[in-house]
Design goal:
The structure holds 2 protein chains of 2 kinds. By secondary structure, chain A is of the alpha+beta class. Helices cover about 40% and strands about 20% of the residues of chain A. Chain A is built from 6 helices and 7 strands, in the order H-H-H-E-H-H-E-E-E-E-E-E-H. In chain A, strands 2, 3, 4, 5, 6 and 7 form a 6-stranded antiparallel sheet that branches. In chain B, a hairpin with an 8-residue loop joins strand 3 and strand 4. Chain B contains 1 helix and 17 strands. In chain B, strands 1-2-3-5-6-7-8-9-10-11-12-13-14-15-16-17 form a 16-stranded antiparallel beta barrel. Chain B is globular and about 55 Å long. Chain B is about 5% helix and about 60% strand. The chains are: A alpha+beta, B mainly beta. Chains A and B meet through helix 1, helix 2, helix 3, strand 1 and helix 4 of A and helix 1, strand 1, strand 2, strand 3 and strand 5 of B. Strand 1 of chain A pairs antiparallel with strand 1 of chain B, so a sheet runs across the interface.
Chain lengths: ~200, ~300
């Protein structure tokens, strides 16, 4: 009986812990740099996955041991195939969903835009400053990657720099939560265009 | 320029209901010539693994995985289907894995190994090494970030589940617990692990520590671990990995003193990338001291030369 209670307690405690917001991916990447991606003590690999990981690592140049270790994304690939994204030349055609594009424009409209390539589906803002923190600046990059109106059709990237002795340098942080929220905001903004098209 | 605060408000202004599902795939294959004195063989195998994940409306990622493999070191040559035995829930800084194949944090200090399983094939090996009787089963693990450290807590309710689709949560006689913490001390990476296993026989504990440090153009890793119970003793290991242009060289050394049996193991591994996911490698393992029984097909010194391909 006590084992059941312990098991339930462990799961409940876990759920409480899950509610704590943090930066697990950042922590994992820090550990990757120290231990290597495959030997990171907190990346849980099966024997099968570990073998493949080490073979990938071995095939990389030493300078890129920890880069691009993520697996091939079959979902994205199938989306591109379904969209007819691969021409006979093997080049990926540029297909940009108009609702996602317009939603991206809406979300970034409050900032000065440096690049807005409707053909390629790419938006980049100018540097965004905060008057209270003059030594920090950020910019947003948005890429619409799908011709279909799907939730995975847009990717966002938030890059920030800190000023140190008049030199701007990347803060080295990855803003996963902020990027996710930005994507959700774009999807929300694109919804009205989708609905108005249906009406 | 607009203010950064506007950006922040834009980021947090609303939530849109959506689901993001992903299927990832990776694979690899290997072929090698393997030698143990006069016993020379080829070894070949490969695997394909699938990662399955989706994201809930609240942003929680739910993932699982499966795969198929033919292990190059598996002498019975059986192809295996693996996975689908547990599910991981992750949000923010925390992830929880529930199901079978939940592993206890043993082997933290076992860092001296530098070769793959093919070079270890037909090697006599050290007769006794540190360990616990069983290190995985049906249970739950939690990993979270805490005060600059990454902390993992593990509980296995049934180390020997009767079937792969479930386990006995309250009636099993063999259970395990453990904890693992990783942090940094200056430029030093430190991981400490503790695992226990209990069954109807003698209970086991294992404690291990590993440190890693970038030194002399490479990475130096050292570890120490001890266990009590079925395997009573201690073990230490050290490994140094470096690159010479594109060639990676790794040297590892382990020494174990367990149940009055002492042995050492030395590994050397060299690999060179050819591009396109292809690499060639040469590896050697040598053991001395109290090894397992030497036979005509095994040796204290074994080696492998081959090529692996990752897809």
């Amino acid at each position: 009986m006590h084992k059941t209670l312990l098991f339930i307690f462990t799961i409940l405690s876990s759920i409480i812990l899950v509610s704590c917001q943090g930066t697990r991916e950042e922590e994992l990447k820090k550990l990757d740099k120290l231990w290597g991606y495959c030997d990171n003590p907190h990346r849980e690999f099966t024997d099968l996955e570990y073998d493949t990981c080490k073979r990938k690592e071995r095939a990389k140049l030493p300078s890129g041991k920890n880069k691009n270790m993520e697996d091939f994304n079959l979902t994205e690939f199938m989306e591109k195939v379904r969209e007819g994204g691969f021409g006979t030349s093997g080049q990926i055609k540029t297909n940009v969903n108009p609702y996602l594009w317009q939603g991206s424009i809406d979300v970034t409209s409050v900032y000065d835009i440096k690049i807005a390539d409707a053909t390629g589906g790419f938006i980049q803002t100018e540097w965004i400053y905060d008057e209270n923190t003059a030594d920090k600046r950020c910019l947003i990059k948005i890429q619409v990657i799908s011709a279909d109106y799907i939730s995975t059709g847009v990717k966002t990237n938030l890059l920030c720099e800190n000023k140190n002795q008049d030199i701007w340098k990347s803060d080295g942080k990855e803003y996963f939560d902020e990027q996710k929220m930005l994507t959700l905001k774009i999807l929300e903004a694109s919804l009205k265009y989708s609905q108005s098209a249906l009406n | 320029m607009k203010k950064l605060s506007l950006l922040v408000s834009a980021l947090t202004a609303g939530i849109f209901t959506t689901a993001q599902a992903d299927i990832t795939v990776s694979g690899s294959s290997v072929i090698a010539y393997q030698s143990a004195d006069s016993n020379n063989n080829t070894a070949h195998g490969g695997s394909v693994s699938f990662g399955l994940s989706t994201t809930t409306d609240s942003g929680m990622t739910v993932s699982s995985g499966a795969g198929m493999t033919l292990s190059a070191s598996d002498t019975d040559g059986a192809r295996a289907l693996t996975g689908f035995q547990n599910i991981t829930f992750a949000t923010g800084g925390t992830s929880i894995t529930i199901g079978n194949d939940v592993g206890l944090p043993d082997g933290v200090g076992d860092v001296g190994g530098a070769v793959g399983d093919i070079a270890a094939l037909n090697n006599n090996g050290m007769s006794k090494t540190v360990g616990i009787t069983d290190d995985e089963g049906t249970g739950v693990s939690v990993t979270t970030s805490f005060g600059g450290a990454t902390v993992g807590l593990y509980y296995v309710a049934d180390s020997s589940p009767a079937y792969v689709t479930g386990g006995d949560v309250d009636g099993a006689t063999d259970t395990g617990t453990g904890a693992k913490i990783s942090t940094t001390v200056g430029d030093l990476g430190v991981t400490v692990g503790y695992a226990t296993h209990s069954d109807t026989s003698i209970d086991d504990t294992e404690t291990g520590i590993a440190v890693t440090y970038a030194a002399m153009g490479g990475t130096l890793t050292a570890g120490y671990e001890s266990s009590t119970g079925a395997k009573d003793g201690n073990q230490f290991g050290i490994k140094y990995a470096m690159s010479l242009d594109s060639t990676s060289v790794t040297v590892g050394y382990s020494s174990a003193d367990v149940d009055s049996k002492s042995a050492t193991q030395t590994d050397v591994a060299v690999s060179y990338p050819l591009g396109g996911g292809v690499s060639v490698f040469a590896e050697m393992r040598t053991v001395s001291g109290d090894t397992t029984t030497d036979t005509s097909s095994t040796s204290n010194s074994t080696m492998a030369i081959g090529s692996s391909i990752s897809f």
